[in-house]
Amino acid sequence: MAHVIEFESLGNADLIVDAVYEGKDSQLSSDPISRLLPGCGNMGGFRLAGKGLDKQFVALFTTGREKDWPDRIDLNTGQFTYYGDNRTPGELHKTPLGGNRVLRRVFDLLHSSPAQRELIPPFFVFQKYPTQKSARSVQFKGLAVPGYGGLSATEDLVAVWKTSLGQRFQNYRSVFTILDLAVIERTRLLSFIGGQATRLSDAPEVWKRWVKTGEYRPLASEPTTVIRTLAEQMPDGENKIAILRAVYEHFKDSPHQFEGFAARLFQMHDQRVIIDQITRASIDGGRDAIGRYVLGLKDDPVYVDFALEAKCYSPGFDGIAANTIGVKEISRLISRLRHRQFGVLVTTSAIARQGYEEVRGDSHPIIFIAGKDIAEILIEKGQNSPERVREWLTTEFPII
After folding, report:
1. What is the pTM for the complete model shown?
2. Phi, psi of 355 (to 5 degrees)
3. pLDDT, mean over the chain
4. Domain identity same for 253 and 124
5. Alpha-carbon span 66 to 72, nearest angstrom
6. Rounded to whole angstroms, how far apart are CA atoms 87 and 180?
7. 225 lies in a domain?
8. Domain count, the chain
9. What count of other Cβ atoms lies within 10 Å of the Cβ of residue 51?
10. Angle CA(107)–CA(110)–CA(111) in degrees, nearest 5?
11. Same domain, 203 and 310
């Protein structure tokens, strides 16, 4: 249960990772971010504070639900992927709030020689978290800095192409690191965001270390459980549900053709996947596809074989219980794995708890891709609406 801080207390509140800060109602004046961080705006994804090229601080707001712009926080690694604010056809840097100009500036400072990290403002990340009191309530996800350890200047800020109403345009995809910091006390916070003159002296230690040395210390959290519940395996949100429905309805009367889609989906998820063969239904031996996963250097690769099984089972829409994958189906895949192979099971449904527990408890090398994962992979690769998915499936996987 998240720690909730009421609107009336925001003016004196500390910033606590994963705490929820409530709005008062649905009006702009009840926006919690601008009350927590005096000086920033109360609308949009970029809440900028300060005039001129270099800002005092920036609050980044994400709903986490934009189908065209899938902002994502990886809690295991502390990596935060955030899309810029040129979200309709127009010039990349000419946006009303100037968010993309800020992105260009901070990543230029990051990668200049020498780096000028002391000029980079702190970024405070918030995610939409509606409560009974206010749809404008937010959850604080952490203090962030641009870039991520191991990423180059060509990887952490990339202009990607999108299409809207037949027009192509660019927007930024940026990568940040959420720093290993649990709480920023109120008094230190106000000094920290007060301006460049006092920022470094009053900054949290993890921020100071990054500014001085460039060392990234991400807020990485190892999950306490590796057993996803049925709800965690099924899509959340109307768009993801509609996308999964489109996939299931396309293949439900021809489940063998789902095998080719499942193999393609695994490739879409990871470019290091090579599919060698989609096996015929009569001779598959429990393996619907076989392939290799590439490890190591491009000029000296190492290949690990895998077997993939696909199950086009009912996801359980419209109040009907899902047809889940049980121990029997999973045991069949495990028994077909050869020495030094791993398995991949792709389903439009979910893995039942007993089967999930046996696989993880016995450390079987099996990857589960369930209904929610299918929808999220498709969205990430641009198939981000049920209409697009149906059109793509009709073209790429016609039902014979």
Report:
1. 0.78
2. -65, -40
3. 91
4. no
5. 10
6. 31
7. no
8. 2
9. 8
10. 90
11. no
Q: Using one digit for the tens of pLDDT, what is the confidence trace for 94-144?
A: 998 899 999 999 999 999 999 999 999 999 999 999 998 898 999 999 999
Q: Report whether the peptide linkage leading into residue 114 is cis, meaning its omega lies within 30 degrees of zero.
A: yes
Q: Are 349 and 325 in contact (CB under 8 A)?
A: yes
Token pair, residue 91, equals 């010039």
β-sheet bridge partners, residue 183:
16
Strands 342-347 and 366-369: parallel
Residue owning tokens 């991520």: 148
Three-state DSSP class for residue 291: strand
Q: Per the structure block, which two tokens stand in for 282?
A: 């009569």
Write out pLDDT tens, residues 255-298: 889 999 999 999 999 999 999 998 865 444 456 899 999 999 98
Report d(CA 54, CA 52) in Å as an integer.
Answer: 6
Q: Which domain holds residue 391?
A: 230-396
Of the residues 185, 213, 241, the one at which a domain ends: 213
Residues of the chain with pLDDT under 50: 282-285
Please indicate, yes or no, if residue 219 is contained in any of the structural domains. Answer: no
The DSSP line for 4-18 is EE-GGGGGGPPEETT
